[in-house]
Design brief:
- The protein is of the alpha+beta class and 453 residues long.
- The protein has 20 helices and 6 strands.
- Strands 4-3-5-6 form a 4-stranded mixed beta sheet. The protein has a two-stranded antiparallel ribbon with strand order 1-2.
- It is globular and about 70 Å long.
- The two termini are 41 Å apart.
- The model has no long low-confidence stretch (mean pLDDT 96).
- Belongs to the PrpD family.
């Protein structure tokens, strides 16, 4: 690379790194991310909040060329990206990159930006995969550069760094040169937003929605020679200086093209905040192993990381969205049903007296020795016996990754009820064979119920 400055180096990498130079394991991780993304997006398209978002867009949009997943509706590329990203995140089942120092849902903004652009021009599957791998790298490297203080200040990293990744990926898939990609990244950076106080509400899904939408707009602006200031990421008054107390811009380019964050992506089994998942694994393991009836449980003591205790210990959730961020409800549901899915987070289950009683027996303690993917669980029984387990890396994380067959099973569970078995298998096959497509628009066409595709 010949350019100076982190913004310019990242833009050159995104624009000029050939797909042939991306290692096959990284491309396969991109395919896995696509399978997971399409599955959760098709299912999320049926959610009531997504339906209301579509109604809001339809009230201000007169149509366009880009497909809206799961709906007989088309929109402009920016608005289609918004709606598809919203649907991808609304169930809280989308993939998550969750190393020490940051947490990013990577696919939910980057893939919708790519696919919306691909609906307006001819894009090959190989180009789409490469654009995702490069956009994900841009997104997560900027997240690392902003660091823990960015998250602790209240920024939802999926929304903020998602703007960077989406802008980079959209610009790449549009075939822009490195200077235009740099302008697109800057346009994404200056639009970046997302407040974590929105967790537990419909508007949390607006964060990746806006990231995808603004990323597409950023690439469009750059393609029309709208220019930015230099060093938008690392400069004085730039993204990192404004949004982080401890900016580390050197993390953007360190090992660029040699190490790939996509290899450490995770895939979720439960439709709740990722910080609840180690505990859920532990509770389900204990009650299943010893065949424990809910009525025999007199207490559930949970030790989790300080971030988990701080951000997911909602004591009395009243809505399904709040339940996703309640360690106490998720523990009670896991103990009662030996699973945590959408039904276990529903209004009906939230209102059940036995679940409320069990939830009130849950105790949460923050343990600084535990990481974000760890939990210690102790279940006290009426017999006086106690059951204990330690979870060090919950299922779906890099420590215990889901294999391709498990991702397929998740996809079928999510998509089957929407599209039916035959169309589900066809769509799943298309996702895995994306490299073979000469026109990516054929993929999204298959996500609409009743459409030929």
């Amino acid at each position: 690379m010949t350019t100076d400055g982190e913004s310019a180096l990242l833009a050159e990498f995104v624009a000029e790194h050939s797909s042939d130079r991306i290692p096959e394991p990284v491309l396969h991780a991109a395919r896995r991310a696509l399978v997971d993304h399409i599955g959760v997006t098709v299912s999320g398209s049926t959610d009531d909040a997504t339906r209301r978002a579509r109604e809001a867009v339809a009230a201000s949009e007169s149509g366009g060329a880009a497909t809206v997943v799961g709906a007989h509706m088309r929109a402009s590329a920016p608005f289609a990206a918004f709606l598809n990203a919203f649907a991808s995140h609304v169930l809280d089942l989308d993939d998550v990159y969750n190393p020490p120092g940051t947490t990013v849902h990577g696919s939910c903004s980057v893939w919708p930006a790519i696919l919306a652009v691909a609906d307006t021009r001819t894009v090959t599957g190989r180009d789409a995969l490469a654009s995702f791998a490069l956009g994900f790298e841009a997104e997560t490297r900027v997240a690392h550069a902003a660091g823990q203080t960015h998250y602790d200040a209240g920024w939802h990293v999926t929304g903020t760094s998602g703007h960077i990744g989406s802008a980079a990926a959209a610009a790449r898939v549009m075939g822009l040169g490195h200077k235009e990609v740099e302008h697109a990244i800057a346009a994404g950076a200056t639009q970046a937003a997302g407040l974590r106080i929105m967790s537990g509400s419909d508007l949390k899904s607006m964060h990746p929605g806006k990231a995808a939408m603004d990323g597409v707009l950023a690439a469009i602006f750059a393609s029309h020679q709208l220019t930015s200031g230099s060093k938008a990421l690392e400069g004085d008054f730039g993204y990192l200086a404004v949004m982080s107390d401890e900016p580390a811009p050197e993390k953007i380019s360190a090992g660029l093209g040699e190490t790939w964050n996509l290899m450490h992506n995770g895939h979720k089994l439960y439709p709740s905040g990722s910080l609840t998942h180690p505990m859920i694994d532990g509770v389900i393991a204990l009650v299943s192993r010893d065949d424990i009836a809910p009525g025999d449980v007199t207490g559930i003591d949970i030790r989790v990381s300080p971030p988990a205790a701080r951000f997911t210990d909602l004591k009395e959730p009243t809505t399904p969205m709040q339940a996703k961020f309640s360690l106490r409800h998720c523990a009670a549901a896991a103990a009662a049903f030996r699973r945590v899915g959408m039904e276990e987070l529903s209004h009906q289950v939230l209102a059940r007296p036995d679940i409320i009683e069990l939830r009130d027996r849950v105790k949460v303690v923050a343990d600084p020795a535990l990481g974000k993917q760890d939990a210690d669980v102790e279940i006290a029984l009426a017999s006086g016996q106690s059951l204990t387990t330690e979870v060090r890396g919950n299922r779906g994380t890099p420590a215990a990754p889901l294999n391709d067959d498990e991702l397929d099973a998740k996809f079928r569970d999510l998509v089957g009820p929407v599209l039916g078995a035959e169309r589900t298998e066809r769509l799943l096959s298309t996702c895995w064979r994306l490299d073979e497509l000469t026109d990516v628009s054929h993929l999204l066409a298959q996500t609409v119920p009743g459409a030929d595709g």
